[in-house]
Specification:
The chain has helices at 14-29, 44-52, 78-86, 97-111, 125-133, 144-147, 165-176, 190-203, 218-229, 264-278, and strands at residues 2-6, 34-37, 55-58, 68-71, 90-93, 115-119, 139-141, 152-159, 179-184, 208-212, 234-237, 253-258, 281-285. It is an alpha/beta fold and 292 residues long. It has three domains: 2-12 and 191-285, Cobalt-precorrin-4 Transmethylase, domain 1; 14-96, Rossmann fold, CATH 3.40.50.11270; 98-188, Cobalt-precorrin-4 Transmethylase, domain 1, CATH 3.40.1010.20. Strands 11-10-12-1-13 form a five-stranded parallel sheet, sandwiched between helices. A four-stranded parallel sheet has the order 3-2-4-5, sandwiched between helices. Strands 7-6-8-9 form a four-stranded parallel sheet, with helices on both faces. Strand 4 (68-71), helix 3 and strand 5 (90-93) form a beta-alpha-beta unit. Helix 4 packs parallel to helix 5 (125-133) and helix 8 (190-203) packs parallel to helix 9. It is flat. The two termini are 14 Å apart.
Length: 292
């Protein structure tokens, strides 16, 4: 019997749920005068739904004249928020609490006189927000090779919340030789870590992995990279219609996980399409012997 294994930790994290809830509450109060700078979460389908309900997603703060401004889940540079406050907009800060923790620990390290290293993607909104929190006085790295080039007497480290654990460990190891004193704050999101660990476990026992979520989502992209690195054929999709039957030729078991911004409805649609492609297949929650 063919099997579809669904990750227990697949889908919305608490930070994304919080952002969506706060946005919906704002829309209920003042429809069509609620704004976000860029996507509030990295989920194209959910953002489109919020736009249909009245959310205005803009690419420049100069497009915003009045109303309510939602700070997206990844946070924003401080100068943007200060400017919007000057204009009299009501600010609703929907930044994920785990992202706030990165900003706070970065400030602590700078205040204590450490040379700050931020581990993550320099182009990601979360990292741009952290850099702003310390007035851009930090170095961003994302590989062990970059870590081995760092030297200093007192070096402090924080991590992008969704950075893979194994890569983080490699980078810390790379920093050790060049630093006389190294202070590391573990700012990785525990929900992300649970999702990554489970994805690795699945990838080791199934024939194919399907990772569902936005192509612009760092945590989803990292999930796909992690499972592929286990040697398991991996496909990253945003929608159920992207599934291709040839991916499953000769396949007996499929693992399914999803990024932190992926809603359960989309996961259900993917499962439904998988069942059609595979034919007679049992659906299980990974690690739980219960047919769905």
């Amino acid at each position: 019997m063919k099997r579809i294994e669904i990750g227990r930790f697949a889908g919305f994290c608490s930070g994304v749920e919080r952002t969506i809830r706060m946005t919906m509450e704002a829309l209920n109060k003042d429809k069509n005068r609620v704004y976000s700078l860029g996507q509030i979460i990295h989920n194209p389908q959910m953002v489109r739904r919020l736009e249909e309900l009245g959310l205005n997603v803009v690419s420049d703060i100069n497009e915003i004249k009045e109303g309510i401004f939602i700070v997206r889940s990844h946070g924003l540079p401080d100068n943007y928020i200060r400017e919007l406050k000057k204009r009299g907009l009501k600010i609703i800060d929907a930044t994920c609490p785990f992202v706030k923790k990165v900003q706070e620990k970065a400030r602590v390290l700078k205040k204590q006189g450490y040379e700050l290293i931020i581990v993550g993607d320099s182009q990601h909104p979360e990292i741009k927000g952290v850099l702003s929190a310390v007035s851009e006085k930090a170095t961003v790295i994302s590989t062990k090779d970059e870590a081995e080039l760092v030297s200093g007497k007192r070096v402090g480290v924080v991590f992008q919340t969704t950075f893979p654990l194994s890569w983080s460990q490699d980078i810390v190891a790379g920093l050790l030789d060049g630093c006389q004193e190294l202070k590391v704050y573990n700012t990785l999101c525990f929900e992300t870590l649970n999702r990554q660990k489970e994805a690795i476990e699945m990838a080791r026992v199934v024939d194919v992995m399907i990772v569902v979520g936005g192509k612009n989502s760092a945590n989803t992209t990292n999930l796909a990279k992690i499972t592929a690195s286990c040697g398991c054929p991996t496909y990253h999709i945003e929608e159920a219609r992207e599934l291709q039957s040839e991916w499953f030729d000769g396949v007996c078991s499929v693992g399914l996980t999803a990024g932190a911004s992926t809603q359960s409805l989309l996961i259900d649609e993917v499962v439904s399409n998988l069942k059609q492609i595979l034919g007679d297949a049992e659906v299980h929650i990974f690690g739980v012997d219960l047919q769905k």
